[in-house]
């Protein structure tokens, strides 16, 4: 995925651009287009035939979001949900200059489901995909910044992008651009860092915090935005501090009679507790570090999606588990732990226990590649068949043809 979005090598991008500064990648430097991900025909199909519902669609005009009633409604007999897109209403608003925003396409559009899954693997951070369809000469949003990194992929038409340096560097999700409206307006009046027109196949990487605005040129513009929710040092620190809940000393009440209005007293209290925290984290580094790592792994699992399973195909494969080829479900976060005479497969939402004899086989499947009942270490074919059947039914592995 990453190689399609940048016109430089991975090392240069990682050291010079990631989280630091924008990167404009022209299609001519690495011939490509993004039409396989989303084209005008695909947008029409999504709006007209795929039953898209709010909030997977929004409309915006001149910096403001339109009310939902402008573009959604009931879908008739057999689909009486009141928040489905009304394609006729969308046409009217689009013809009047509104930008169509298709959100969460990594959840409902097959080409982007696969592409975003690859992006998560490449980047190591949660990724989402939105599309912006803007009529000629119009813009959807005023100058602003995002609290996540973005890769802009121009698929159709031309769009002018104006990018300015941050007014608040590396913003967190709790620090939206609306907290800095005046500073952004002032920055937008200054000379930009980038003022360019993206053509089909062009890509633009913007770290979070960089102020930007975009306007379609003389034709309809379609671009994809891959939003990357970067894990930060603050996230790591919070995961570590959360582990202190297990330490009795930090669960105790502060002394009776403390005066929260006395700033000097509060500074002394904070300084004392911080020193105790630092000492505890130094003495219990291994335990606290392991717990924090587990929490970060769990958080990543909650914010990303493993490859969807195909229930009918998986059930069919389980019926022929003695010959079926399977592999680990891509994107599924899990650990294999030995515990006495059992081996435990710890998943984000549950724990599955197996006989200890399955340990080597589980590790082999977990490490990747296609597995068969006749090739799993430590098990004969009959036991391996039972293991594969159970893993298929538990949605831990998928048939090799569908992964």
TrEMBL record:
Its cofactor is Fe(2+). Keywords: Iron, Metal-binding. SMART domains: JmjC. GO terms for molecular function: histone H3K36 demethylase activity; histone H3K4 demethylase activity; metal ion binding. Residues 98-245 form the JmjC domain. Pfam families: JmjC_2. PROSITE patterns: JMJC. PANTHER family: BIFUNCTIONAL LYSINE-SPECIFIC DEMETHYLASE AND HISTIDYL-HYDROXYLASE, MINA53 MYC INDUCED NUCLEAR ANTIGEN. This is JmjC domain-containing protein. It comes from Mycolicibacterium hippocampi.
